[in-house]
Amino acid sequence: MKKTLLFLLSVASFIGVYAQPVIHGYDVNPVPGETIEIKSKNNQSLNLGANGANQAWDFSNLSQTQGYINTITSAYSSPVGTPGAFSFPDANLRIQYNPSDTIYYYYNADSSSYKYLGYGDTSGGAIGWVTNPRSVFRYPLTYNTHYIDTINEIFTAPSSNDTETTHGIIDRNVVAYGSLTLPSGTFNNVLKITSTTTDTTYMQQDIYIDLTIETYWLYPGIHTPLLYSESDFGQIFHPNGSITNTGGTSFFYATGTPTAVNEIVAKKYKVTCFPNPAQNTVNLGFELKQPGDVVVKVMAANGTVVLKQENHYGQSGATTLPLNINQLAAGIYFADLNISGVHINQQFIKN
């Protein structure tokens, strides 16, 4: 499993059962101090199922998979003051994928993307960093989103005086959405994303050419892919002309049934959206514990902003903001409330 491509995804957009999912970048930041548990299995591939709209993927029998399934608990923390953090000044997240690991991975999460910056080994001092931050994902993500990113990485190991460079291309496509059933339950409005990575690594003597095919199933509100599959095919070319074939398959799935972050925050601020469906006006109700800024915008199902932001300074207590939606076409929309930096999405239907 390529740990550099694993990530924690926090999404706070609540989407109705029949709506096309949209995942926004401002909701991606994992919470330092959080731990996530997954179950992984090496040397076994999955039937990835169909692509397209409104698919249904059933992986309810994964827990009955024959062979050893490893349980991994990953920990997330702030990189400030940690070993190796000086090598990644732009990082705002550090991930340890297994408690026994001495390797930490560094990321930067902002409103438009989730970037992988590199890793550091606290035991031997080895460091690998990207010379151009690699976008693990770019936002918003929705059905048929497609982008290509380049790979330029450098690895150094002071103990062995070893240096390696890697160059390549990542091609990612959001190929489907629908419902996903795991041993922990069924999740609606899941995005399925495929990723093809081709890269070449120049080692001290050998050249390593690699092809990796990955599939992610992402669900709004869960901080890790619900399901992930990887197939890796590589060849190492040696100076004497011989070739070593490498590669394998693996998958992991999230355990438990986490509660969507958006639902928790919406309850905290007592957010409501009425009437729903609406014809000419939709009202957004919320309650502030103290006065603060509220910014509202309305987005279509594909993430496009269709109404300009409305700035409002809210007093403490219950507040209702009416939005004129008379000019909108009939369909499903999302009202995004930014309450003092906290985003809450509410779905509504325009008749």
Describe this structure in words.
The chain is an all-beta fold. It folds into 2 domains: 22-254; 261-350, Sandwich (Immunoglobulin-like), CATH 2.60.40.1930. Helices cover 2% and strands 57% of the residues. The protein has one helix at residues 261-268, and strands at 22-23, 35-42, 52-58, 70-77, 93-96, 103-109, 113-121, 127-138, 141-142, 146-157, 162-182, 185-202, 207-218, 227-237, 243-254, 272-274, 281-288, 292-300, 305-314, 317-324, 331-339, 342-350. A 12-stranded antiparallel β-barrel has the order 2-4-5-6-7-8-10-11-12-13-14-15. Strands 19-18-21-22 form a 4-stranded antiparallel beta sheet. A hairpin with a 3-residue loop joins β6 (103-109) and β7. The longest helix has 8 residues, at 261-268. The radius of gyration is 22 Å and the shape is globular. This is Secretion system C-terminal sorting domain-containing protein. Keywords: Signal. InterPro entries: Secre_tail. Residues 1-19 form the signal peptide. Residues 274-342 form the Secretion system C-terminal sorting domain.
TL;DR of this structure?
The protein has one helix spanning 261-268; strands at residues 22-23, 35-42, 52-58, 70-77, 93-96, 103-109, 113-121, 127-138, 141-142, 146-157, 162-182, 185-202, 207-218, 227-237, 243-254, 272-274, 281-288, 292-300, 305-314, 317-324, 331-339, 342-350. The protein has 351 residues and is mainly β.
